[in-house]
Amino acid sequence: MAAPAVSDEAIAAFEEALVDADPAGAKRQLQALPGWSVAQLADGLVVPAFDRLGGAFERGEVALSQLYIASRVCETLLDELRSGARPSDAPRPRLGVAVLEDHHVLGKRILLSVLRAAGHTPIDLGHGLGAEALARRAREERLEVLLVSVLMLRSALRVKELVAMLARDGGPMLPVLVGGAPFRLDPKLADEVHASGWGRSATDALRLVAEVVDDWAGVP
Ligand code: B12
Predict the structure, then answer these.
(1) Residue intervals in the chain for CATH 3.40.50.280
(2) Which residue's alpha carbon is at the smallest distance from atom 80 of ligand 1?
(3) Under CATH, which number does the domain 95-217 receive?
(4) pLDDT tens-place string over residues 17-62
């Protein structure tokens, strides 16, 4: 379900608490939205606050160290919210989630939480992996869908290399789904790097996985 709108004031207050490295203040903002899922909090509060922080960083108003601390505070809070979802008995595709090249891990953590809450058992392949290493891990893990998160344009462009490597291996092509800031900023980018699909939010990942799995089931 899409996140209801959060006021600009609430987003600004959450951002301020993160910049001030004030976990209690940040938690108060999350608690002001009782009953919200991790996906809804991500879309409504976390991503907008970090987009604002990214702008402030570009303008030189916040330091890299503040971004780092802000992410750590947020990671801890989101971990506390993790639902106790148990894997479902329904057959599920083998999913892998990774951050290609860069070290921005918050989106991957949210993605993992949302997939788990929906009954999937995704494999966390880590972050900072090069295209070759990731292609190898994907094959070793016999993945059926690979979800790649990237936050830097340079890393996003590497998806093309990753897809080419997977295609070179022969066998059925592994669907590669992508997401992260570069794809949100340029919706044509996913096609340019030959991704099988892209999503704006972690909730989109659920729809995309269902779509690619359906497409595969339709292949004779
Ligand atoms: C926090 C942050 C950091 C933190 C990261 C800490 C951590 N543990 O993750 C730290 C301080 C380490 C950092 C470092 C750097 N950063 Co930084 N960072 C950010 C910032 C502000 C927020 C990123 C974030 O966490 N957003 C919140 C998460 C939840 O959002 P998300 O990842 O987009 O995920 C959501 C969706 O996109 C989606 N999604 C994500 N993945 C996927 C995948 C699939 C398949 C699907 C369907 C959906 C999906 O679901 C998520 C939930 O809704 C961004 C600005 C921005 N607007 O993104 C800059 C930004 C990404 N960083 C940037 C830069 C330049 C750097 C550094 C190079 C800075 C430096 N001088 O060293 C380093 C590079 C580090 C590296 N090699 O990776 C630039 C990149 C510019 C570019 N053109 O590439 C940005 C855009 C800031 C800017 N405006 O300049 N950064």
Answers:
(1) 95-217
(2) 152
(3) 3.40.50.280
(4) 999 999 999 999 999 998 888 889 999 999 999 999 999 999 999 9
State pTM to two decimals.
0.94
Tell me, using a 6 A CB cutoff, whether residue 201 lines ligand 1: yes
Half-sphere exposure of residue 185: CA atoms within 13 angstroms, side-chain side: 9
Other residues' Cβ atoms within 10 Å of the Cβ of residue 168 = 8
pLDDT surpassing 60 at residue 181:
yes
Dist. CA 41–CA 163, nearest whole Å = 31
Does the pLDDT at position 66 exceed 60? yes
In the reported structure, the alpha carbon of residue 40 is separated from the centroid of ligand 1 by a whole-number distance in angstroms of 19
Write the residue with the smallest CA distance to atom 4 of ligand 1: 68
| Residue 77 in this model has a pLDDT that exceeds 50 | yes
- Ligand 1: which atom is nearest the Cα of residue 155? 84
Contacting residues for 169 by C-beta, under 8 A, at least 6 apart = 135, 139
CB 129 less than 6 A from any atom of ligand 1: no
List where CATH 1.10.1240.10 sits in the chain: 8-81
CATH code of 8-81, in short, is 1.10.1240.10
Helices 23-31, 64-81: crossing angle, 10 deg rounding: 50
**CA 220 to ligand 1 centroid distance, Å:** 40
Closest-CA residue, ligand 1 atom 51, reads: 107
